[in-house]
Amino acid sequence: MVLAQLGGSISRALQQMSNATVIDEKVLNECLNEITRALLQSDVQFKLVRDMQTNIKKIKGKTSVVMFVGLQGSGKTTTCTKYAYYHQKKGWKPALVCADTFRAGAFDQLKQNATKAKIPFYGSYMESDPVKIAVEGVETFKKENCDLIIVDTSGRHKQEAALFEEMRQVSEATKPDLVIFVMDSSIGQAAFDQAQAFKQSVSVGAVIVTKMDGHAKGGGALSAVAATKSPVIFIGTGEHMDEFEVFDVKPFVSRLLGMGDWSGFMDKIHEVVPMDQQPELLQKLSEGNFTLRIMYEQFQNILKMGPISQVFSMLPGFSAELMPKGREKESQAKIKRYMTMMDSMTNEGNSNPKLMNESRMMRIAIGSGRHIREVMEMLEEYKRLAKIWSKMKGLKIPKKGEMSALSRNMNA
Ligand code: GDP
């Protein structure tokens, strides 16, 4: 599918969504299905990769070679180790080969990561021919009965013709079963030309999008998918080895549309909100009725819940602004401050934010021992969240497990 068609089907889907008077589950799902079709436009290719992921292990004695390519700095080397570590946990016997002789320090980086994960690695400080290293590495690990040999190559830019030729030679010599194109989620529309250049030199069969923990929504992935006619299989969500997830199209698209991870959130609600509070909360939300009381109760639940950043990252609107990653302690303190102010608001006998004026805000500030500026900030936060949650009005609340089953079906 060419980019114009892909763009066309996505705008059509969004158009349908914006024409709808109420964004209910049906409208949302139709939109997501449409975009999913566009994203996974090459069903055959997708099945091939999925089968490779799941079935190859069953073919006894068969080793698969996976080659990683991408621009320098895209997160390729980090992703190689994440990919190896992911499969190691699933019972594979992976190994890493550093065929990046271009960037000084590339071998050290891979070696360090591999050692941490206890994954065998191969590379050389002396040898400057990446083809030779790649071939030797693959041979070595085949003899050691590794069943997944991952070859990291130098990062390159589409104008670097010599490096592209070198990458083609590495591919020809190692005959990878799969070539993975790694892209940074912030690359944007340039992704199309870059991905296409890689596809023209080696047969890219899958895409991994990195740095999804940052601000970028990863829209460039759509272009990379279109250019390589390959599906996204994993996303990177942090610098650490285990910050790596199987690509799930639904949360990805929800994020692209700025709607949060709705299905993950629903599952989380079922998991963490006490059973007796669930029906009432969901009912209120489906009425588009996000009150200060609800915000307070959710803060309470969240504070009780443990690794709160996980839950936060799924709540529409809660993630980046209120709860930046890595600053959980500060965010937690902020939530507690908000709650003290809200307590004082209830004591004040007025919890309707619409009736708030300066003297009331002042009384709340004094009552809670905070500055009026902070009361205003808390109310602003409430307004921001209420606006986002008002989009949920009319939503048919799925029962436990329904949403995740749905997203699984979409990926099947
Ligand atoms: P390469 O040049 O493509 O091999 O890129 P590297 O693997 O050296 O990664 C470049 C930088 O991106 C490093 O600082 C990595 O820690 C960082 N990085 C890689 N993947 C992710 C990710 O998913 N999230 C974040 N936040 N950083 C990442």
From TrEMBL:
Q: Which reaction does it catalyse?
A: GTP + H2O = GDP + phosphate + H(+)
Q: Which PROSITE patterns match?
A: SRP54
Offer a single GO CC term for the protein.
endoplasmic reticulum
**InterPro entries on file:** AAA+_ATPase (IPR003593), P-loop_NTPase (IPR027417), Signal_recog_part_SRP54_M_sf (IPR036891), Signal_recog_particl_SRP54_hlx (IPR013822), Signal_recog_particle_SRP54_M (IPR004125), SRP/SRP_N (IPR036225), SRP54 (IPR022941), SRP54_euk (IPR006325)
One Gene Ontology molecular-function label: GTP binding
Q: Which Pfam families match?
A: SRP54, SRP54_N, SRP_SPB
Q: Which SUPFAM superfamilies match?
A: Domain of the SRP/SRP receptor G-proteins (SSF47364), P-loop containing nucleoside triphosphate hydrolases (SSF52540), Signal peptide-binding domain (SSF47446)
Q: Which residues form the SRP54-type proteins GTP-binding domain?
A: 231-244
Subcellular location per UniProt equals: Cytoplasm; Endoplasmic reticulum
- Keywords on this record? Cytoplasm, Endoplasmic reticulum, GTP-binding, Hydrolase, Nucleotide-binding, Ribonucleoprotein, RNA-binding, Signal recognition particle
Give the signal peptide as a residue range, or say none if absent: none
> Mainly resides where?
cytoplasm
Provide the GO biological process annotations: SRP-dependent cotranslational protein targeting to membrane, translocation
| Entry remark concerning the domains of this protein | The NG domain, also named G domain, is a special guanosine triphosphatase (GTPase) domain, which binds GTP and forms a guanosine 5'-triphosphate (GTP)-dependent complex with a homologous NG domain in the SRP receptor subunit SRPRA. The two NG domains undergo cooperative rearrangements upon their assembly, which culminate in the reciprocal activation of the GTPase activity of one another. SRP receptor compaction upon binding with cargo-loaded SRP and GTPase rearrangement drive SRP-mediated cotranslational protein translocation into the ER.
What do we know about how this protein assembles, alone or with others? Component of a signal recognition particle (SRP) complex that consists of a 7SL RNA molecule of 300 nucleotides and six protein subunits: SRP72, SRP68, SRP54, SRP19, SRP14 and SRP9.
> Would you identify the family this protein belongs to, as annotated?
Belongs to the GTP-binding SRP family. SRP54 subfamily.
The record's function comment reads: Component of the signal recognition particle (SRP) complex, a ribonucleoprotein complex that mediates the cotranslational targeting of secretory and membrane proteins to the endoplasmic reticulum (ER). As part of the SRP complex, associates with the SRP receptor (SR) component SRPRA to target secretory proteins to the endoplasmic reticulum membrane. Binds to the signal sequence of presecretory proteins when they emerge from the ribosomes. Displays basal GTPase activity, and stimulates reciprocal GTPase activation of the SR subunit SRPRA.
Query: What is the protein name for this chain?
Result: Signal recognition particle 54 kDa protein
> What is the protein's species of origin?
Ficus carica (Common fig)
